[in-house]
Specification:
Layout (H helix, E strand, L loop, with lengths): L1 E10 L2 E11 L4 E5 L6 H9 L6 E6 L2 E2 L3 H8 L2 E4 L11 H13 L6 H9 L15 H12 L6 E5 L7 H16 L3 E5 L3 H4 L5 E6 L2 E7 L6 H6 L10 H4 L2
Parallel strand pairs: 3-8, 3-9, 6-7, 7-8
Antiparallel strand pairs: 1-2, 1-4, 4-5, 9-10
Length: about 240
């Protein structure tokens, strides 16, 4: 179980997120939505341990992310996928996967699960390509595969479907449902509400660094309507001089 208690992260005297209190349970898929700059990525990075809280705490079970040595073994079991491209550009895709395997498992042999994921995303054909020469979709698939190397207790994915085609998005949904069935906690940030609708178990809406809505998906008729309810009318503009 993951708990955020009075979690605040401040950047240059400005709060990225403020006084967040949330709980994330195993076997539940959480969708985190909000506009650009609302605080989604900051929240996910605090939960993953990349950012330490300015005040408050993030606990994975009873271990705080502030206790870096104790948290290290927990962090190795987190499948974290950032929005940015973080892999070595001049290495091939398979070299990046092999390096990540060593760093995450201490072994220089790909796991059976990694081989299965390579097949699942049909990535065999571009494993020999340098990462920098791959398309956006290819890069995203490799980063997803790498995030899932080793033993996984928690999945934290920030915009995982950017650049992916329809089939790949369907595969992501089936893959996340598989991990959810294995009692893995899944946190998913996504701007595409249609992707999350009828898929997530729980919705968290963040705005101006604060949580403004927490709701079980089964109680939500429409994610879009729920989100728009919290947006000021003058922020939703009409094109071409306001003509409807």
């Amino acid at each position: 179980m993951i708990r955020c208690e009075n979690l605040t992260k401040v950047f240059d005297e400005k709060a990225g997120i403020y006084d967040i209190n949330l709980q994330f349970l195993p076997g539940v898929l959480y969708g985190i939505i909000g506009y650009n700059g609302a605080g989604k990525t900051t929240l996910l990075r605090c939960i993953e341990g990349l950012y330490l809280p300015t005040t408050g705490h993030v606990y994975h079970n009873d271990t705080s992310t502030k206790k870096e040595k104790e948290f290290l073994h927990i962090r190795k079991k987190i499948a974290y996928l950032p929005t940015d491209e973080y892999l070595y550009k001049k290495l091939t895709c398979i070299e990046n996967i092999e390096l990540a395997t060593i760093l995450r498992t201490g072994k220089n042999k790909l796991t059976d699960e990694t081989r299965e994921l390579i097949k699942y995303f049909e990535a065999q054909g571009f494993l020999g390509k340098r990462f920098c020469d791959c398309s956006t979709g290819m890069k995203k698939k490799i980063q997803i595969i790498i995030s899932l190397i080793g033993e996984i207790d928690t999945i934290i994915w920030d915009e995982p479907n950017d650049g992916l085609d329809i089939i790949s998005n369907l595969r992501i949904k089936r893959l996340l449902n598989y991990y959810k069935s294995k009692n893995v906690t899944v946190l998913l940030s996504c701007h595409v509400i249609e992707f999350l609708d009828n898929f997530i178990d729980y919705c968290v809406i963040i705005q101006d660094g604060k949580i403004i809505e927490k709701q079980e998906a089964r109680n939500i008729k429409s994610l879009e309507e729920l989100y728009i309810r919290h947006i000021e009318e003058d922020k939703i503009l009409y094109p071409f001089n306001g003509n409807k």
